[in-house]
C-alpha cells in the first residue's frame, strides 16, 4: 500500500518573534506569529504526513486552544506524528517541501533543517527534500508580510 500526502501552511511575520524554520533558529529582524513557534515548514510537512495516513490536520491533533502547545517547538509535533506512523507500521519513502520566503536567504540553513526534520522522524537524511524560493517580490510574501510552505510525502506499508 502506498499513499501520498500534501500540506500547505502560511504564517504572518511580526516583530518580537524568533524566526524558526525547519526547527532552525534563523537570525532575522522578524519572526512568525503562531501559538507554537510558528514553524510554517514543519506544519506543512506534518499535514502532508497526517493527510497521507488519512488523518485530520495538525490543528486537530495539536489545537492552539491547548496551553500545552504554547510556544512549543514544532519539532515535537513531528516527533509525535513519527510515533503514529511507526505504530501504524507506515514507512516514509520520502518527503519533499518548499519554503516561499522573500527574506532572509535560507540556503545556508537548508542542511541543518534537513537534519532536524529527519532526526525528529527517525528517518534517513536523504529522504527529506527542503527547497527555498522567493516570491519575486509579488504579493504578501513579496512584501514580507508572511512566509508560506508546501510539502508532499510518500508513505508505504506492507512493501519490502
Ligand atoms: Zn502553522
CATH fold category name: 60s Ribosomal Protein L30, Chain: A
Secondary structure class reads alpha+beta
Total helical segments = 5
Largest sheet data: 5 strands, mixed
Strand order of the largest sheet: 4-1-7-5-6
Give the CA-based shape.
globular
Task: Note the beta-strand portion.
Answer: 25-35%
The bound ligands are:
zinc ion
Protein name: 2-C-methyl-D-erythritol 2,4-cyclodiphosphate synthase
InterPro entries: MECDP_synthase, MECDP_synthase_CS, MECDP_synthase_sf
Family: Belongs to the IspF family.
EC number: 4.6.1.12
Structure, explained:
It catalyses: 4-CDP-2-C-methyl-D-erythritol 2-phosphate = 2-C-methyl-D-erythritol 2,4-cyclic diphosphate + CMP. The chain has 160 residues and is α+β, with helices and mostly antiparallel strands. The chain has a single domain, classed as 60s Ribosomal Protein L30, Chain: A, CATH 3.30.1330.50. It contains five helices and seven strands. The strands form two sheets. It has a five-stranded mixed beta sheet. The chain has a two-stranded antiparallel ribbon with strand order 2-3. The mean pLDDT is 96. The chain binds zinc ion. Zinc ion binds next to β1 and α1.
Task: Note the topology.
Blueprint: E1 2-14, E2 19-21, E3 24-26, E4 31-32, H1 40-52, H2 58-61, H3 75-87, E5 91-100, H4 110-121, E6 128-133, H5 139-142, E7 146-156
Parallel strand pairs: 5-6
Antiparallel strand pairs: 1-4, 1-7, 2-3, 5-7
Helix pairs in contact: 1-3, 3-4
Note the main attributes of this structure:
2-C-methyl-D-erythritol 2,4-cyclodiphosphate synthase activity; 160 residues; 7 strands; 60s Ribosomal Protein L30, Chain: A; EC 4.6.1.12; binds zinc ion; metal-binding; single chain; five-stranded mixed β-sheet; globular; 29% helix; alpha+beta
